[in-house]
Design a protein that fits this description.
The structure holds two protein chains of two kinds. By secondary structure, chain A is of the alpha/beta class. In chain A, 33% of the residues lie in helices and 28% in strands. Chain A has a six-stranded mixed beta sheet, with helices on both faces. The longest helix of chain B is centred in the last third of the chain and has 44 residues, at 270-313. The chains are: A alpha/beta, B alpha+beta. Chain B: This is ABC transporter permease.
Chain lengths: 243, 410
């Protein structure tokens, strides 16, 4: 597992030590005889400790890119190296393991299991990572503490506010110490107070050294990142460092 | 994820939908309870019947008079004519004539009233000889049985069945008492040990007198020497068929009949009765178990149905678990375990209901139910298997869901 080292001069050193390396990636969806090319040749390198926002309107290929980055889907052509590992050739079981060890997901819909208390939700990635029960519990409580919800560990998602639920989801994303935190519209379902809450949490994670890729269509949210990648019609339209 | 954790997750999922899990479990429960009950009832009835039949005595052949077969093939007059005599019984007892017949007991029976003081009781009075006790496999609880001396002297002695003794005297300690049959006094010399009933025949409600006494004083009729039944005991089960053949040949000769199809007697064996009854009950048991198995099948389809609902309902959960790193086999295992938890719960509860019903039913129905450990254990295993088998399709469907599609599901 890649070490999440704190690097003040992140952007300058990023290309030398990439977490994500996409080369000539295309993705074609087939529905019967109709073909649709969602990605038409994407090159992208994201270095350790970077905080990148991927922006684009609906239908731009942004979601497809997010699915590929999250190893939730396979690419049609090109190569994808995640923390140095070529994931293009992997089968479903290996991909599951990659997701488990390398990626922490934060979804728009939170996707917490309503019947489980917060800490049980947080420990889920460790369950599939074969971590012993006692250590899982300790690390889950630690992660909840990091997102400021140590006192809500025993509450079920239904007893938490939207912002709190998303913070539980963030805790779940970082409990496995992944190389990459992938946040897909994490504030899409939140009010402005909770949005600020979650975004500042992501800022903290970034400061602490996590590599974060944030998918959003809101410019306000994207501004929190230090680099913005714009996707349009299946291609990268612009890629700029804003901070 | 360890097995224990998977099991806990499965149990948790089952419990979080209490009502529909209960209804699903109910389907399995009824099926399993029905299987245990029907198998138990079948075994119990079989046991009852063989016990009843074997209580007649062991390795027994029963010769009854008066069977004739008409030209149309209709057999008539079974037991209604007096074609068997004491001479027949004596001939059958001969070792040279019928070497495989170990014991012979002729019965001359009639239903008549016995008086003891002011009490009277109508029962079957049987005139027979000393060998009756051995051939019928009975023992005397008190006093003695008939002796050869009683037979030759036409003694007015009587051995009572325990039921008869109780009806007449209110107790079975009646040796030395006197009873009256048709105005003749009989001295009670012994009381039989209780044996139970054989079908409609109460083996404990009877009275035994010497054959000679019965022939001369009680039964009379057209032929004093006529007997109603001759019991033959073969030396062993293997010799039963030989004894049957010897007795048939001998009786045909004695009665001057050349064509065995027009024999004026019928020999039936206890084993034939047992095997007929057993096969009847076996068929019944198979039929009932088949119906119970059908209800199990329906229960299994219920499990499959509810698991499919569960998979559809939890598509997002499946997607999330996959995104967090659950491989397909882990998802499949989770749903399989959940289905077998349903099966196991239904099986265990069904076993409890089945066993309780099996304990309660005999007093209500009057027939015994044998609860075999194999049937109970087997049913529980079958219940788990049903959960597994009917869980395979839903679990496979869950495992095959693509994580992105599953996550996007509403």
């Amino acid at each position: 597992m890649a070490e999440l080292t704190y690097a003040p001069d992140r952007w300058a050193s990023a290309p030398a030590e990439p977490v994500i390396e996409l080369e000539g990636v295309t993705k074609t969806y087939r529905t019967g005889t109709v073909e649709f090319q969602a990605l038409r040749g994407v090159d992208l390198r994201i270095g350790v400790g970077e905080y990148v926002a991927i922006m684009g309107p609906s239908g731009s290929g942004k979601s497809t890119l997010m699915n590929l980055l999250g190893c939730l889907d396979t690419l049609t052509t090109g190569t994808y190296r995640l923390a140095g590992e070529d994931v293009g050739e992997l089968d479903e079981i290996d991909l599951a393991e990659i997701r488990n060890r390398r990626i922490g997901f934060v979804f728009q819909q939170f996707n917490l299991l309503p019947s489980l208390p917060a800490w049980r939700n947080v420990e889920l990635p460790l369950v599939y990572g074969h971590v012993p029960a006692a250590e899982r519990r300790r690390r889950a409580l630690e992660a909840l503490d990091r997102v400021g919800l140590a006192d809500r560990a025993r509450n079920r998602p239904g007893e938490l506010s939207g912002g709190q639920q998303q913070r539980v989801a963030v805790a779940r994303a970082l409990v496995g110490e992944p190389a990459l935190v992938l946040a897909d519209e994490p504030t899409g379902n939140l009010d402005s107070v909770s949005t600020a809450d979650v975004l500042s949490l992501l800022d903290d994670l970034h400061t602490a050294g996590s590599t974060i890729v944030l998918i959003t269509h809101e410019a306000d949210v994207a501004r929190r990142a230090e680099r913005v990648v714009r996707v349009m019609d299946g291609l990268i339209q612009s890629d700029e460092v804003i901070r | 994820m360890t097995w224990l954790e998977t099991l806990r997750t499965g149990w948790h999922a089952v419990r979080s939908h209490a009502l529909r899990s209960t209804l699903t479990v109910l389907g399995i429960l009824i099926g399993i309870a029905a299987v245990i009950l029907t198998v138990g009832l079948g075994l119990g009835t079989q046991q009852d019947v063989s016990k009843q039949i074997s209580s007649l005595g062991s390795n027994l052949l029963i010769v009854r008079p008066g069977s004739s077969t008409s030209a149309e093939g209709i057999r008539g007059g079974f037991g209604s004519r007096t074609t068997l005599t004491r001479a027949d019984a004596d001939a059958l007892a001969s070792k040279t004539n019928a070497p495989d017949v170990a014991g012979v007991a002729a019965e001359k029976s009639t239903s008549t009233e016995i008086d003891a003081g002011s009490t009277n009781w109508t029962t079957t009075v049987v005139g027979t000889t000393t060998s009756w006790l051995d051939v019928r496999g009975r023992t005397v609880a008190q006093g003695r049985f008939l002796t050869a001396a009683d037979e030759t002297s036409r003694a007015n002695v009587i051995v009572l069945g325990p039921e008869t003794a109780k009806e007449l005297f209110g107790t079975t300690f009646v040796t030395g008492q006197t009873v009256t049959i048709s105005g003749t006094d009989f001295q009670v010399v012994g009381v039989l040990k209780p044996e139970g009933s054989s079908g409609d025949n109460d083996l404990d409600d009877t009275a035994i007198v010497p054959m000679s006494t019965a022939a001369n004083q009680l039964v009379g009729g057209s032929d004093r020497n006529a007997v109603s039944t001759i019991y033959l005991q073969a030396a062993s089960t293997d010799q039963l068929a030989a004894a049957d053949a010897e007795a048939t040949t001998l009786l045909l000769n004695l009665h001057g009949i050349t064509d065995s199809s027009s024999a004026d007697f019928t020999i039936s064996s206890q084993d034939a009765l047992v095997s007929t009854a057993t096969s009847v009950y076996k068929t019944l048991t198979i039929l009932l178990t088949g119906i119970a198995a059908l209800s199990l099948l329906v229960g299994g389809i219920g499990v499959m149905n509810i698991m499919l609902v569960s998979v559809t309902e939890r598509t997002r959960e499946i997607g999330l678990r996959k995104a967090l790193g659950a491989p397909p086999w882990a998802i499949r295992r989770q749903f399989l375990v959940e289905a077998s938890v349903l099966g196991l719960t239904g099986g265990l509860l069904g076993a409890v209901v089945g066993v309780v019903a099996a304990k309660a039913l005999p007093s209500a129905l009057g027939s015994s139910v044998v609860v075999s450990g194999v049937a109970v254990g087997g049913s529980v295993v079958i219940a788990i298997a049903i959960g597994l088998v009917f869980g395979v399709y839903p679990a496979t469907r869950a495992a095959r869901l693509a994580p992105i599609d599953a996550l996007r599901a509403e």
